[in-house]
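I have been asked to look over a protein record a colleague put together. What it holds is a sequence and that sequence's fold in token form. Please read both lines and tell me whether the tokens look consistent with the sequence. I do not need a full report, just your reasoning and any doubts. This is what I was given:
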Amino acid sequence: MPTALERLSHDGTLLILSAAILIYIVARTALDVISGGRGITAGQLAIANAFPVLTVACVAAWNRQADLALAIVLGSTVAALTLVLGLTLTGEALGDDDIAPSSRAWQFLLPTTLMLMLVGFGGRLTLTHAAMLLAMGVLVSGIWREGERTVPTIAPDATEEEPRRVDTTRWLRGILAVLLGVLAGWLAMRGGLDIAASRRGLSPGVVGVTVISAMLALPATGYATLMARTGRTGMALASQVGTAMLLLTLVLPATIAVWYARGAIVVRDTSTTTTAPTPTLKFMSAELSLETAKPLPFSIGLWRIEAVLLVALALPVIPVALGRWKPTRAEGAVLIVGYVLYLGLITAMGTRWH
């Protein structure tokens, strides 16, 4: 009889739990490195939220798991705009002065999602698409940074009178965050594939949306709900919109680039066999070939649900950014229920994912 630990290891549950712990550590470390320990802005929080998704998605793309990589990016974007925002709003509704100055950049979420939906008709994502999304991200980041120039940070560790100290360990912590992020990506990928394999008819893409993306949203959920309880609901809202923008305009292009890079590397077996009883000598060589670099497949299952849903979620962001609508706790509850229904729909699709 297999033990409980062996059963957990077999279906990937233990790997997923290990990845969740590492992802939390990576998100906290990334936020500390980005902020320099002096204060946090919504943009910095968005980068910290997106960083674990970047490492996990790129690991999946490097290992040729196209559906899993895209499901992680798009599923995490949906989670940021539904689950995390919903929990934030149910904790504290937006006040009269809660709209962040960076809200001018929020309006670009709609054209970005529309671009992704139109690209999905081709069923693949190319380097041209990656460049288009990245260009949109550069434009948005410029507007966002301009809006945050006058925004005070929260939780500062030093006053203005104190001299700025040189943190000699900052780069080391940044490297550690990258290494732990890659390890978390490998654990999440292996766990997701094992779960899909142990449950007949469940594709890796479904696991990526329902399990891994929800897990990646946990650190962001903790930060957002904490800010809402301390009266910073507007900043929490800005951080989640910023996270969604980063995932679509930075993490997704990076995932496409990694897919192309891995496809361009051709590993050839150059083993030589000599006469018996001398054993076979195993050698492998790697070559670069642009002919083997193919576009990242964009499955119909992801396109017809995630792409359409992201457009629908981007629409109400515009009146919020313009200050014409302030979501309340009721809207937050609707977002949470909608996310649960979304997970149920994805799970029900099962084998009809492709």
Notes: DSSP finds 13 helices and four strands in the chain.
